[in-house]
Amino acid sequence: MCDLTEKLQLSQPKISRHLALLRSSGLLQDRRQSQWVYYSIHAELPAWCHELLNLLVREQTSASNQSQSLQIKSYCGVIPHEIYFPMYWK
Hints:
Blueprint: H1 2-8, H2 12-24, E1 28-33, E2 36-41, H3 47-67
Antiparallel strand pairs: 1-2
């Protein structure tokens, strides 16, 4: 959550509401581990959803590479890599 609040410059309650909406619609799944909640793209999305997500990631990566190098930085301290949304899906 803190990574998203920092990157998006939005409040934690607003991001929580959006994540809850994405989870209830079946796009995201979550896994709770102590005080952390790990979100990921739902594994059982239809193939067309994965294709669309991959296209969006490629377009974003292409635009980022043209303007600046992409850097992944956590604002939550030391966090396992798997909590980040994967760059590419299926």
